[in-house]
Amino acid sequence: MHNTAPQNDTDARAGIDVTDDFERFAQRNDIFTRAFWDPTVRTKQTDAFFASYRMEAAPRRGDGFGQRDFALRNASWLISDVMTDRFAQDGRREGFQAPISADTPVAPIRFDVNDLTEMSREIKKVSRFFKADLCGITSVDARWHYTARIDVRDMSDAPNDLPEGITSVIVLGHEMDADLVDTYPAATAGAATGRAYSQEAATVMQVAAYIRNLGYEAVPSMNDTALVIPYALKAGLGEYARNQMVITPEFGPRLRFSKIFTSLPLAHDVPEPLGVRAFCDICTKCAEACPVKALPFGAPEVGGANVSALKGVRKWTSDAEKCFGFWAKLASDCAICMRVCPFNRDFRKWYHRLWLRLALSPLRRAALWLDAKRGARKKPSLWWENG
Ligand code: SF4
Ligand code: SF4
Predict the structure, then answer these.
(1) Which of 140, 229, 257, 362 is the most buried (most CB within 10 A)?
(2) Is the CB of 222 under 6 A from ligand 1?
(3) 1 in a domain, yes or no?
(4) Residue among 2, 9, 74, 3 nearest 234 (CA)
(5) Is 386 part of a structural domain of the chain?
């Protein structure tokens, strides 16, 4: 079904360093999935974390953690939640532990694709129309697909299959709200995450429906089915960083990614190294700011602290247990390592584009120095008061 050929050229361009002891990832080892079955991760705090998304846990006091903050965050997740819960009774928590079911049949008449480059251009236009902020296209690569998905009725392994004939992956980026990201850590800030997930749920379903109307297979996907970060790198959307995020020239690390698996004939993007790796080599702002020291300070390494780390890829890897433990304590997601990152800027502004040129040049130390005073947390109460 999948193209399993080694993709060394693309890997090198995308900054992906796979070693001989590589193993595909089992979704049950994902830290969020472990929170449901692994007693070393599941605690009263993690249960309260999930309950807070249903307002069952009492909101805490403090700026950014009051009832309206949790209410905003939970409302922001609504569209994603409605989609995800549709088939939960069948064991499919779609978008997270299962790909999203098709709502549109594949049309019996196939649209003729004579020019792959033109078809890719059109798909990018359609993706933007359906509110994706970035779009890249790459080939299917079985290495990044989970060995099994999870049946959420009993947390058992279930087949992680895609339809026959899938050849390409359309990778979409969804910008997170800059003002809210500035307030991490806060339940208010979590609304930036939830709104992006709700948007991506709508976008991947609509782009997939478009392709199915053209007579080709298309499977909408969020965090399910395959790791999205290597796909975003392969699709040329950005470069991998110390904070485990993909840094993009448009939004830095301030976005989320989704994907669509398709049989539609498409031209593929070619990744280009940007220079982010060299910048992260001289910067440790994210690792220093992490309250639980879950991010590495040194060079990229193979493996990680526990089973939630991908095996056989040399990269910066967080200690997911420490990280998620902090989320549970907050009763909300954390992205301090996104907030403080010097690349967390609005590159629509010319002076930030100028800074980007400096950061990606041999003068990167000057760019880091210029960033020294940025990245402080903004009070969530100011977000409510402004505008
Ligand atoms: S999300 Fe928060 S806890 Fe996790 S690595 Fe980033 S700063 Fe640390
Ligand atoms: S904070 Fe610095 S080291 Fe961390 S990801 Fe951003 S640029 Fe890289």
Answers:
(1) 257
(2) no
(3) no
(4) 9
(5) no
